[in-house]
Amino acid sequence: xxxxxxxxxxxxxxxxxxxxxxxxxDIFDSHSLAQRQGSWKDVEELEKMFYRLDFxxxxxxxxxxxxxxxxxxxxxxxxxxxxxxxxxxxxxxxxSQSFVYAKDNPYPVEFLWxxxxxxxxRTLAGKPKLFFVQACRGERLDPGITLRKKMITExxxxxxxxxxxxxxxxxxxxxxxxxxxxxxxxxxGTWFIQSLCSEMNKHDHRNSDLLGxxxxxxxxxxxxxxxxxxxxxxLHKQKQIPTIHSMLIRDIFFKPKNKPPSETIVxxxxxx
Length: 272
Fold this sequence. Notes:
One of its GO terms (molecular function) is BIR domain binding. The chain is built from four helices and eleven strands; from the N terminus they run βαβαβββββββααββ.
């Protein structure tokens, strides 16, 4: 049992933080899919962010679907008993809200997390599984709405054993809303990943929980970014909002492990 039934926070006191996988697809076999220039910047910043949070980092570059299947199955069958959690980021093209691309073929986005439910990956049962998807989810655009002062906007503001749903403890975050474009700068990376890294790096994780930080990520993407593409008016001055699906049942605080860097195992650059 990783944590007691009535605990308000996930147990982040295991020996290791866990594995963070960065699945980077920036070149593709299909000539209809453009190279994702600037994805290297996202990978670079994600590596730094996950290292700061004490994760062991793996980078999978431009894997074919069959290779991705093999490596995800290996990861799901690994022993995570001494790990706090799992994090997976995918950087790629999206076909729609339901499919993203490997180097060769599209696959259902839920394929990324289906092998990690509590009934299939028992050593991660009751532990947070974090997924971040940077990909377009359609071809719609959001020009945004200008808020003026006269407008008023309202918002809604212990047992020894217990059973949990198999899909509990997941956080699945998409860079954009269903059906919409997700923007990427060819040199500076994507709005979502760069905002994620900036917010994760600036907060004290002993006092700031992950979902609260993710709200600030959404605010940064929504308010600080607007597309600048005057040569293609249909893409000019457009906005973007991430989408957060939380099945978490406790708070997540990435408090430091207090281990010297020499004890951190680095697993990276697994590619075809």
